[in-house]
Automatic annotation (TrEMBL):
The species this protein was found in: Demequina activiva
Signal peptide extent: none
Pfam families documented for this protein: ABC_tran (PF00005), ABC_tran_CTD (PF16326), ABC_tran_Xtn (PF12848)
Domain ABC transporter stretches: 1-198, 265-486
Source taxon at top rank: Bacteria
Protein name: ABC transporter ATP-binding protein
Region Disordered, annotated ranges: 499-519
Lineage summary: Bacteria, Bacillati, Actinomycetota, Actinomycetes, Micrococcales
């Protein structure tokens, strides 16, 4: 790790990500080799096993000795961290009275308030909502000056990886593969590596290629790479179909469900309070859920998301209003708990799934339970394992499969990403793409939400609001509301609001683009075109050098050294030109 590094660490569960981080952070001694740290380097660590002293107050746990002298009040970083991570916690609350998620946020705040040169974070987004994850990404991006400080983060949150990291370390089979860029760039490079290694069509159509297709088509600006690189990626996926065939999904869903799925008609829910009164959680919600719809539900903790789900599943009757459910609707929920696997604890995985029949997916495939398990990453050895001996991630995958094998036509996912690594998440998303039914998702995993749903709604102040601008709109409106500029009316309440103004007024104006004169814009466009041409030329020349090195006499050390020096010069110039391309792009607002 060098000054300025922003590293994301990915890999399957049990591959050694946390072990690597503990070793680098000095918390675990290696059995061989040495760890060298520059003298005076200040290191901050958030480990998954870190706990806060439960006898302290929230303020004492975060700022330590400064809590008594009020030194923290004059430190803008401390104020920013506390408002970003624990805005809802009283400073004098005792840590032992907090929930596990709240204690985790206090532990993260304790690490971030200190002035560290290097910060190691292991699953920092756990227990953060969408807005909290967005705040954390912004904080880490502005924490150090350009080229200073270092960050290494282990997380399964792929949106967060793209937002904060510039290099990716993939841990597998006791080794580390290094990739330039965040998660999107990592996916692209893995696809390119697989393509070079095996050029057959079956290999080309692997899961990572489908993931890349969505990254390029469905999520603009996920990678800050020059246009010629984006063009190359688009050429790579030109013949890959969209991740979901929406027409076929809708057709099959309508055939299984009919026109009527679930309709909420002026539904309100009120709960009794300790003082004998009532607290209104949902107020006069009108929402018609159609066949094949894929919807994400956003909202702060306690906003009423779980209550809304219970209305949909029929586990809760509204205080007023009514819920109309279609005659053929079969609802299933993938809950955050794994209790439904308890009855199968002593059975082997293969024995549990053999009770179910094959299922038909929207792409026409009929898959057996065993094939579906393999698609979700189970090996033949794991199929013979007792359920009680499975890891948390394996139990989560088995739980998902059992829910799908029960053949529901409305599926509710409540925080489905817990305990799953990025590859398994991609496999799960791939399976959901071809599952014919209506999908309702509640998750703080922004990447998953954008990946598997086609529309998003927010539960705020008892109302349900449609978000044409997606999660970006939700984050912006949440911040405006907290700052007092948007107020309750910003989100609205009651019936679903389709935001008649569309999304044109929601997108921020490109930075600096509106300040350019016509001549300045033409000059910048001319320069950016020149930079792209030079980058393309350098890429071709670098490929030629690599080819020359591959066929060069390996005993000609001087010749190889000369080629290596040329390659380094090309790499240095490429880095400079890419930096200039990004600067020009920012000025042009592209």
């Amino acid at each position: 790790m060098e000054d300025g590094d922003r590293i994301g660490i990915v890999g399957s569960n049990g591959a050694g990500k946390s072990t690597l981080m503990k070793t680098l952070a000095g918390r675990l001694e290696p059995h061989g080799g040495a760890i060298t740290v520059t003298r005076g380097t200040r290191v901050g660590v958030l480990d998954q096993s870190d706990h806060v002293d439960e006898s302290l107050t929230v303020l004492e746990a975060i700022v330590g000795g400064s809590a008594d002298t009020h030194e923290w009040a004059s430190d803008p970083r401390i104020r920013d961290v506390m408002s970003g991570l624990v805005p809802d916690l009283p400073a004098d609350a005792v840590v032992g009275t907090l929930s596990g998620g709240q204690q985790r946020r206090v532990a993260l705040a304790h690490v971030l308030v200190d002035d560290h040169d290097v910060v190691f974070l292991d699953e920092p987004t756990n227990h953060l909502d969408v807005e909290g994850v967005a705040w954390l990404a912004e904080h880490l991006n502005r924490r150090w000056a350009r080229g200073r400080g270092a960050l290494a983060v282990v997380t399964h949150d792929r949106w967060f990886l793209d937002a904060v990291t510039q290099r990716t370390w993939e841990v597998h089979d006791g080794t580390i593969d290094v990739y330039e860029g965040g998660y999107a760039a990592y996916v692209l490079q893995r696809v390119e590596r697989d393509r070079i290694a095996a050029a057959t069509e079956s290999k080309r159509q692997n899961l990572m290629r489908k993931e890349l297709a969505w990254l390029q088509r469905g999520a603009p600006a996920r990678t800050s790479k020059p246009k010629f690189r984006i063009d190359a990626a688009n050429a790579l996926i030109a013949d890959v179909p969209p991740v979901r065939d929406k027409v076929q999904l809708s057709r099959m869903a309508a055939a299984r469900l009919g026109k009527d799925v679930v309709e909420l008609i002026r539904c309100s829910v009120r709960y009794p309070t300790a003082d004998g009164g009532e607290r209104e959680v949902l107020r006069e919600i009108d929402w018609n859920i159609g066949p094949g719809e894929r919807t994400g539900i956003l909202g702060e903790n306690g906003a009423g998301k779980s209550t809304l789900l219970k209305l949909i599943t029929g586990d809760l009757e509204p205080t007023s209003g009514r819920v109309k459910t279609g005659m053929t609707v079969r609802v299933a929920t993938l809950s955050q708990r794994l209790a439904e696997l308890d009855e199968h604890a002593e059975e082997r995985v293969s024995g549990v799934v053999k009770r179910f029949k094959s299922v038909e997916l929207s792409d026409g495939q009929e898959m057996s339970p065993t094939q579906l398990l393999e698609r979700l990453g189970f090996t033949s050895i794991q199929l013979k394992t007792q359920v009680k001996k499975l890891s948390g991630g394996q139990r989560r995958r088995l739980q998902l499969l059992l829910v799908l094998l029960s053949e529901p036509n409305v599926l509710v996912l409540d925080e489905p990403t817990n305990d799953l690594d990025t590859d398994v998440l991609a496999a799960m998303e791939d399976l959901l793409d071809s599952w014919p039914g209506t999908l309702i998702v509640v998750s703080h995993d922004r990447y998953l939400m954008e990946r598997v749903t086609d529309q998003q709604y927010a539960v705020v102040d008892g109302g349900l609001r449609h978000l044409p601008g997606g999660i970006d709109e939700y984050v912006r409106l949440s911040r405006e509301r907290r700052a007092g500029t948007g107020g309750v009316g910003t989100f609205g309440s009651g019936a679903v609001d389709s935001a008649s103004g569309g999304t044109a007024d929601l997108a921020p104006a490109p930075t600096g683009a509106t300040d350019l004169s016509g001549a300045e814009r033409r000059s910048l466009e001319k320069e950016i075109a020149s930079v792209e041409r030079r980058l393309q030329r350098l890429m071709r020349e670098s490929e030629a050098i690599h080819a020359d090195m591959a066929t060069h006499d390996q005993g000609d050390f001087e010749g190889l050294a000369r080629l290596t020096a040329q390659l380094r010069e090309h790499d240095a110039e490429t880095a400079e030109l890419e930096e200039r391309w990004l600067e020009l792009g920012d000025r042009l607002g592209v």
